[in-house]
Specification:
By secondary structure, the protein is of the alpha/beta class. The protein has 2 domains: about 230 residues, UDP-N-acetylmuramoyl-L-alanine:D-glutamate ligase, CATH 3.40.1190.20; about 220 residues, Heme oxygenase-like (Heme Oxygenase, Chain A). The chain has 19 helices and 9 strands. It is globular and about 65 Å long.
Length: about 500
């Protein structure tokens, strides 16, 4: 079994570390995949511009691709800056017949304004790579240049790109009046609303987007779900971009949440000696940075210091009610894959409990917040909510029992840890305090300890590859937990 999704990026090196291969590998890692690379040009580049481009000989580009694919393999590939027609020809020749899902990011101009694709290479890109592409991902200016159309209608541009030979086209939403990614798969249109951030740190945003899209395809997500994931990852990287790093537009920061603070123990859970680290200890260590970011989020701090706007809390409660319905389905699916009757019974019970929590805790809170059952029934999942539940269900339905546990565990464990910490602090708002007591209490702590015990029971039975796969799902859904609270705080919505 392959332990982790594999993504090959075929692009150029950015000596400033903001875009190109460097941005791709960071975004791929952010999505829990293993990134490999074939470098087509070396650039002398910083945040202010590109001062030099040194092409790699086309034969050596092919040799890099072949070396990676013939040994490590790949579950998806992406292309970025390819610079010249001979390099495009070399890439196309080596990829033809490989059958890889391929994201073609037609990089033409850097965010600094430097030209990255020679004029005579445009036709080669369309003629040789579009027919191999699962999806092409131009921004609005690139889509107009590739199609020759003056229209700013992304739907029109996407349809023309597909007619040029691509199986699907996604025109990204960073330019123009509408903040929306537009996906056309040759049959149907899917607008994906995105958030724009007024920060001077967008260098590498397009590379990050296309790399995250490729990582989603490598993980087995549908094109639509992979596109949603890419929008979230790229938007998050821009929001946390490194403003002030260099004299120009700073680089995006796809790995902003990673660090290694000490792990706080779950209340009443025995702490094992460092020499006897359990599987769950390893898992927690892998998301310690994410957990620190969660505790520092204004939604979480606002629960205890009283600064959380009630409307943000109400929005969160509605979204959590929608989430718990899908989470109950996820737990039921885990129960159906359990190898033992006791484990199956435990997850089936927890599935029913998730619905009970929605009806009891959320029902009473929604009443106090002035939200009717009809309003909840009419509500739609916010983008982060839909992305999270889609990833959960896709992972569980397409994976093993152990993978399912890895995916659902953060929702148990992080809530218990957060609840325990917030219970220690308390809240001046009785509504917030009731929420805290639900997840910080001993009853929920006992439920979580049962799931942790089951996780540690199966850990020694897994191969190193299987443990790595479980850990990847655990890290990804832990990040979604942060995104869920951030969604609630911002009252995230679909712009169109």
């Amino acid at each position: 079994m392959i332990p982790v999704p594999r993504v090959l990026t075929i692009a150029s090196s950015d000596s400033g570390g903001g875009a190109g291969i460097q941005a791709d590998l960071k975004a791929i890692a952010r999505c829990g995949a293993h990134g490999t690379s074939a470098i087509v040009t070396l650039t002398a580049q910083n945040t202010c511009g590109v001062t030099g481009i040194h092409p790699v000989p086309p034969a050596f580009v092919r040799e890099q691709i072949k070396a990676v694919l013939d040994d490590i393999g790949a579950d998806a590939a992406k292309t970025g800056m390819l610079f010249s027609a001979p390099l495009i020809e070399a890439v196309a020749e080596e990829l033809t017949g490989r059958g890889l899902p391929l994201v073609v990011d037609p990089v033409m101009v850097a965010s600094s304004g430097s030209r990255l694709l020679q004029p005579d290479a445009v036709s080669a890109l369309v003629r040789r790579l579009f027919p191999l592409a699962t999806v092409v991902t131009p921004n609005l200016p690139e889509a107009r240049a590739l199609t020759g159309l003056r229209s700013c209608d992304r739907a029109v541009l996407a349809e023309r790109l597909v007619r040029l030979g691509a199986a699907a086209a996604l025109v990204t939403g960073g330019h123009g009046d509408e903040p929306v990614d537009h996906l056309f798969d040759g049959v149907s249109h899917l607008p994906i609303p995105v958030r724009r951030h007024r920060v001077a740190a967008t260098h590498g945003a397009g590379c990050t987007h296309s790399a995250a899209l490729a990582a989603g395809l490598a993980a087995g997500l549908s094109l639509a779900d992979a596109a949603r994931q890419a929008a979230l990852v790229a938007g998050d990287a821009v929001e946390h971009g490194l403003v002030g790093l260099g004299g120009g537009d700073g680089p995006v920061h796809a790995l902003h949440g990673l660090s290694m603070p000490p792990r706080p123990p779950l209340s009443a859970r025995p702490v094992l000696p460092e020499t006897a680290m359990s599987f769950t200890d390893e898992l927690w260590q892998s998301i310690s940075g994410t957990y620190r970011e969660i505790l520092a989020h204004p939604f979480i701090t606002g629960l205890t210091d009283g600064t959380l706007p009630p409307e943000s809390f109400a929005f969160y409660v509605v979204q959590d009610a929608l989430y718990l319905r899908q989470y109950a389905s996820a737990l039921a699916a885990v129960a159906s894959r359990a190898p033992r009757p006791d484990a199956a019974a435990m997850f089936a019970r927890h599935s029913a409990d998730a619905i009970a929590v929605e009806r009891e805790l959320h029902g009473s809170l929604l009443t106090e917040l002035g939200i009717s059952p009809e309003a909840v029934a009419a509500a739609e999942p916010a983008p982060a909510n839909l992305a999270y539940t889609s990833y959960l269900l896709a992972t569980i339905r397409g994976g093993t029992y152990a993978e399912g546990i890895g995916a659902v565990l953060p929702c148990y464990w992080i809530y218990a840890e957060v609840g325990t910490e917030l219970l220690r602090r308390g809240s001046p708002d009785p509504r917030y305090q009731r929420w805290i007591e639900t997840y910080g209490g001993e009853e929920f702590g006992a439920v979580v300890r049962d799931v942790l015990a089951e996780t540690d029971a199966i850990g020694p039975l897994l191969s190193a590859a299987e443990r790595a796969l479980v850990s990847r799902h655990f890290r990804v859904t832990s990040r979604y937990e942060w995104m869920f609270w951030d969604m609630g705080y911002r009252m995230e919505s679909w712009p169109v």
